[in-house]
User: Which sequence fits this backbone?
């Protein structure tokens, strides 16, 4: 290594400043499970610093689309896809791009809170660093744990018991711990797949509040079946539909307020007003 060879030393995650939300641009994304096509030419721009809600009836491909956005779809046996996903202009599926880079830049929070139950709250937060090969000193970790738990709205509740297991927290707290864990690698995008569906109304509102607080520094894409939630948290919505055995596609997308008050397509109007789905 020469003194000019900066590429040989990967910058640490901790060197990346917080507040670097990215733009995701899905272009003509199609998806298959075996020979069954489940998504048809889905294109959607998810702008930096905004919350995009993916709405639509069960089975229309929202979760599949979300998994394509951080390269989790390809892990499912028999699953294939076509199209492009650009993160700040660079295709996350480009052959030279490493899978771990996509995962680091694009975090995911799942429907069911999935902290490592026996691991301490502190270790849960820093777990992602190890998985993405990043070393951090103890003071750096201490700082990161406080920062991420604060951003996830959990610090005040757990600051005195950081060494207790993550599994001992309530469901809502566990979900906020998972959000903190995702934030620890400083992602540019956070994908959330029905993050509140297993939570009570109070925990749900707390997560929604967290989403709004976070969006200034991380772009959020959230799947939700809850139309009130979509209206409360999102800046724009995309309505997915898979009609009569056809693959899922976006019927309409746009600013959330317009999608709910003046939808262009009758099917959108029927769905957001609870007439089907
Ligand atoms: N692992 C899989 N293997 C085969 N088919 C799958 C798999 N996962 C999903 N599918 C199918 O792909 C289609 C889209 O499913 P997906 O879970 O993306 O829809 P969704 O809109 O997220 O549904 P829900 O709102 O119920 O979560 C469905 O027909 C589903 O049965």
Assistant:
């Amino acid at each position: 290594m020469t003194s000019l060879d900066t590429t040989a030393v990967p910058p640490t995650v901790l060197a990346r400043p917080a507040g670097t939300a990215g733009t995701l641009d899905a272009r003509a994304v199609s998806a298959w499970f075996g020979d069954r096509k489940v998504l048809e030419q889905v294109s959607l721009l998810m702008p930096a610093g905004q919350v995009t809600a993916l709405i639509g009836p069960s089975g229309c491909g929202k979760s599949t689309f979300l998994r394509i956005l951080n390269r989790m779809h390809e892990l499912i046996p028999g699953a294939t896809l076509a199209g492009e996903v650009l993160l700040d202009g660079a295709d996350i599926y480009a052959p030279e791009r490493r899978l771990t880079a996509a995962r680091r830049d694009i975090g995911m929070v799942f429907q069911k809170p999935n902290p490592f139950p026996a691991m301490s709250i502190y270790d849960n937060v820093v777990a992602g660093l190890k998985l993405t090969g990043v070393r951090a000193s103890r003071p750096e970790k201490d700082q990161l744990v406080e920062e991420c738990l604060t951003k996830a709205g959990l610090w005040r509740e757990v600051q005195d018991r950081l060494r207790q297991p993550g599994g001992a927290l309530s469901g809502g707290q566990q979900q906020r711990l998972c959000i903190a864990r995702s934030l620890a690698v400083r992602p540019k995008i956070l994908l959330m797949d029905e993050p509140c569906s297993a939570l009570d109304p109070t925990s749900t509102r707390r997560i929604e509040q967290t989403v709004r607080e976070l969006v200034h520094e991380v772009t959020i894409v959230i799947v939700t079946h809850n139309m009130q939630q979509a209206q409360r948290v999102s800046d724009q919505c995309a309505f997915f539909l898979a009609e009569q055995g056809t693959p899922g596609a976006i019927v309409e997308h746009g600013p959330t307020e317009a999608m709910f008050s003046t939808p262009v397509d009758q099917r959108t109007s029927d769905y957001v007003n609870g007439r089907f789905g």
Q: What stands out?
A: The pocket of adenosine-5'-triphosphate is lined by residues 33, 38, 56, 58-64, 76 (CB under 6 Å). Confidence is low (pLDDT under 50) at residues 1-11.
